[in-house]
Amino acid sequence: MFFTTTKTTSRARTYLSTKRLSLAASLLGLLLVASVVLMPGLASASEPTACAFGLLQCDDNGIVWGVDQVLGENMGAQLSSSDGLAEFIIMFGYFLRGVLLPFLIFIGFFFFLFNLARYFIFSVGNEEARKKAKSNTLWGLAAFVFISSLWGIVNILVVPQIDRERSICPDYLGAFCGNLGYDRVTGGYSGSSNIDFGNSSGGGSGGGSGFGGSGSGSASQNDIRSRLGELLFGNQQEQVTFNFRSGAPRAQTNTVGILPGTSCLDGFNTLQLAAEVENTIGSYLLSRSGGQLTWTNITDSNGPFSIQYDADTVNNRQIAGDTDLTIVHFHPKATPVAAGLSLSGYAPTPEDLNAICSGVGGTPTHVVVDDTQLWVLQGTSATCPRRAQEEDDLLTIGTLLQLALLPQNERNAELQLLYNWSDVPTAVRGEIRDYVSTDFSELTETNIVTMADTLARQGDMSISRTTPEGFCSSY
User: Fold this and answer.
1) CB within 10 Å: which end of the chain, N or C, has fewer?
2) What is the DSSP letter of 252?
3) Dist. CA 115–CA 134, nearest whole Å
4) pTM
5) CB 252 within 8 A of CB 299
6) 24 with 121: CB under 8 angstroms?
């Protein structure tokens, strides 16, 4: 009897030890799985994807920290300066979602597993300890469920899993959503990588920065492509910037050469020919040095839809005593042709108008040369930078100027198409609403240019259209 009892007890202990070992291995496996599930960044990191209604980017670890890294320096600065509370809420939400709550979930789950092990393994034979372990296990399970639920709520509020094609992008978020490839449902932006106002029903790609952007995407099937909008806000939109980097202009040899002593008229005739045959933009400074007229190539970088002026060359000319400083660049005819428009010339763009506020060379005159005539842009006061309303007006002025160069029988249809285009910026839609009822087919080119100039003068600048002979006679 004693031998039987001892043998039975030995088997029971062996079975219990085996069961404990098996349970311990199972708990260890669960803990390992939980670690991988709750902290996937320990195993691998995926490419960041857009989240928070397209405002930020996240990977498996949560937010890609740093607003500037996600939105770009300018966007980050704008968000932090104009809406610090919004940034705080966003970042705090991601701290909860990506750091605090996963940590608490891990602690709660570990607490649950630890007390489960105490109940089944470490406290066998000690009923008081098992009772306490059972209570703690239930509390750990409750905490784990509560925190997991809270984590889910935060995920819903901060990182909603919304279909990319129907994602929410409120109007007040402006360019943020477009920059991260999220579509606007109500007449907003579509595309990816950056804002792309130039998409047709078959897709498109943009370039540059500013009002337009680079990337590719597809417009909705109900969207009708606006050729005028393509030129103003889409793929063919011009980009004009100033580079204050010291040194000679880097792209002088990429554009047509004009000898310094060339006459005013010969210089502009040369640029008109360049506008007729060239595909890229070139920029020049016309000034008087020691009483003598001189041309200086200030093309720092250029392309089919972009020009960068060498600002320090302009400033150095002024310091050297040059007078009558005039920044000139030509508009290639190839650009409106690529947009599918038959324009009698190529008017200044919103970017050209904005360049008047450059702050170089004592606010010089700006001249835009197309293949038919010249456009003279001047600031009428020193009130730069512009106010927000004046910035919006630039888009409308650019629209009117391009409209003036269209054949009379095409103007009304093109304006209506632009107004109804789903990709037109909200600011432009509101501004041009007042002009939709106007019969532009009855107006002359001069009438419309005068209309644009009237609006421009509200923003302390003037616009006029002239010939090379007319400009040079009064220069």
Assistant:
1) N
2) G
3) 7
4) 0.55
5) yes
6) yes
Structure tokens at 340: 């599918």
Contact 337, 232 (CB under 8 A): no
* Torsion angle, alpha carbons of 428, 433, 438, 440, to 10: 20
pLDDT for the residue numbered 75: 38
| Spatial separation of the C-alpha atoms in residues 106 and 94, rounded to whole Å | 17
* Weakly modelled stretches of the chain, pLDDT under 70: 1-94, 155-223
Task: Say how far apart CA 72 and CA 176 lie, in whole Å.
Answer: 10
Q: Are 459 and 386 in contact (CB under 8 A)?
A: yes
Q: Is the dihedral angle over the CA atoms 255, 256, 259, 263 positive or is it negative?
A: negative
b/e burial code for range 306-342 (CB count within 10 A of at least 16 → b): bbbbbbbbbbebbeeebeebbbbbbbbbbbbebbebe
Distance CA 160, CA 382 (A): 47
Contact 41, 102 (CB under 8 A): no
What residue type is 388 in one-letter code? Answer: A
Residue closest to 372 by CA, chosen among 471, 472, 272, 470: 272
Per DSSP, the residues of 281-323 read --EEEEEEETTEEEEEE-EEEE-SSEEEEEHHHHHHHHHTT-E
The pair of structure tokens assigned to 32 is 């390992």
410, amino acid identity: E
Separation CA 266–CA 275 (nearest Å): 14
Pairing between strand 323-330 and 306-310?
unpaired
127: left (phi > 0), else alpha (psi -120 to 50), else beta? alpha
